[in-house]
Design a protein that fits this description.
Helix content is 41%, strand content 15%. The protein is an alpha/beta fold. It binds adenosine-5'-diphosphate and magnesium ion (MG). The site of magnesium ion (MG) has 4 residues, from helix 1.
């Protein structure tokens, strides 16, 4: 199982939309996907219409030693399972102060589910805390959705600094790739930002930026509609193709 973290220390850049669309495109290729909602806000979980009362089983339970198998939710897509966000995830920071080893809980849980899925996609929270650190410790690859707006670059730079810090405590390299999002080719600042993204050393930039597309605004439709269309989804399909073709270090690690 390959583990991809979809993360940026800024909100509203397309992390959840990218996690969802990449998972749907992977499922169309018959890959078995585990989508993990690591954001306590639970946007991904809501998109799939998971009832919140009583709170669902899901991501938090992994931090109590439960197996992925016992807490994953099936979805209307045969190839996609979901680990739902749970309100108790907000208490993890406090627990981590007294419970050493909590930073590797996700990695351990995913190791136990290795044969069940081809890919795990981690929809990360925008805050640097235990959940994001777990994602960076567990993943083979970090995909940073980055809004093509100069004001969004500080989120990317913060994320790359955090990735470099976590990589030093890992035994394997962390592949980093930028996925430009909310791209409008008619806007000069979008084009200039896209150019600028290509200047970060050691970081691949996806050649298929994801355009602004109102059809990507409805997360519930992206999660549940049988067939997806439009130029946004089509760009995600191209982006996935590029992602699947890159990252030799990840293949060596597997
Ligand atoms: P994050 O998870 O990083 O906070 P989201 O994926 O929730 O970001 O996206 C933030 C908002 O932007 C959402 O309302 C989403 O529907 C919208 N959005 C994301 N990508 C696009 C896009 N390519 N075109 C139009 N709207 C988008
Ligand atoms: Mg989100």
């Amino acid at each position: 199982m390959r583990i991809w973290a979809i993360a940026n220390q800024k909100g509203g850049v397309g992390k959840t939309t990218s996690s969802l669309c990449l998972a749907r495109c992977m499922a169309d290729l018959d890959h078995r996907v585990l989508l993990i909602d690591l954001d306590p806000h639970g946007s991904l979980t809501r998109a799939f219409g998971v009832p919140t009362e009583p709170p669902p089983k899901g991501t938090y339970d992994l931090f109590n030693g439960d197996s992925v198998e016992s807490v994953a939710t099936t979805t209307s897509h045969a190839c996609i399972d979901l680990l739902a966000a749970q309100p108790a995830m907000a208490t993890l920071e406090r627990r981590s102060a007294t419970q050493p080893g909590l930073g590797l809980a996700l990695l351990r849980a995913l190791q136990g589910a290795a044969g069940r899925y081809d890919y795990a996609l981690l929809d990360c929270p925008p805050t640097l805390g235990l959940l994001l650190v777990n994602a960076l410790a567990a993943c083979d690859r970090l995909i940073v959705p980055t809004q093509t707006d100069p004001l969004a670059l500080h989120g990317l730079e913060g994320m790359l600094r955090t990735a470099a810090m976590v990589e030093r405590s890992r035994s394997r390299p962390l592949v980093r790739q930028i996925l430009p999002t909310l791209f409008d080719r008619r806007t000069r600042s979008c084009l200039e930002t896209l150019e600028h993204l290509r200047t970060y050393p050691g970081v691949g930039v996806c050649p298929s930026p994801i355009p602004m597309d109102t059809r990507l605004r409805d997360a519930a439709a992206l999660a549940t509609h049988r067939h997806l269309g439009g130029r946004g989804v089509s760009a995600y399909r191209d982006a996935l193709q590029w992602l699947l073709e890159t990252a030799p270090a990840e293949q060596e690690a597997a």
